[in-house]
Write a structure and sequence with these properties.
This protein is an alpha+beta fold. The protein is built from three helices and eleven strands; from the N terminus they run βαβββββαβαββββ.
Length: 169
């Protein structure tokens, strides 16, 4: 899962592909930067999941893999929407997934910037599993899960040029 991909429609699937992986993208349009992507091994059955309602404003991509729903989010520091609407939308997504697929595992990860950790936890019931800062002293890059699915979570130096650390679970 990647955030701030900077992928645009001009970047073909071939340009961003990784052998043996299917890439799912939500590119930012009309502004520089942004975008999210999820790479899923080709041996796994996967598809984009679209929640009910309008999510055009948000850089949030949901991918359904087996019994797991993976949400990749980039919440920019200067969003063009009211932050509360994003929090409400995430809550609605978690409720919809939990209602239609009661045994599903939900993983929500990405760059949350100034989105309140406690708001995400309180509104969704998801568990925050990243406990270290990921950019200087800030906890911007996070992973939330509906149940314990990772035995190890590490914050490591990114392999690409970035002032953020990478989170590996």
């Amino acid at each position: 899962m990647l955030t701030e991909t900077h992928f645009k429609s001009k970047h073909s699937v071939g340009f961003v592909s990784i052998p043996d992986y299917t890439v799912f993208r939500r590119d930012r349009s009309g502004r520089r930067g942004g975008g999210v992507a999820v790479y899923v091994h080709s041996s796994l059955i996967s598809s984009t999941w679209m929640p009910t309602g309008d999510n055009i404003s948000f850089e949030l991509l949901w991918v359904h893999v087996g019994n797991t729903f993976i949400g990749s989010l980039y919440h920019p520091p200067r969003a063009l929407y009211v932050t509360d609407t994003l929090t409400s939308f995430i809550e609605a997504c978690v409720i919809e997934i939990s209602t239609v697929h009661p045994s599903a595992i939900i993983i929500l990860a990405g760059d949350f910037n100034q989105l309140s950790d406690s708001d995400v936890v309180q509104n969704t019931g998801l568990i925050a599993i990243v406990t270290q800062p990921t950019r200087a002293a800030s906890h911007l890059d996070r992973i939330y899960v509906s149940c314990p699915v990772y035995s190890t979570v590490r914050v490591v130096k990114s392999l690409v040029r970035s002032d953020h650390y990478a989170v590996v679970a």
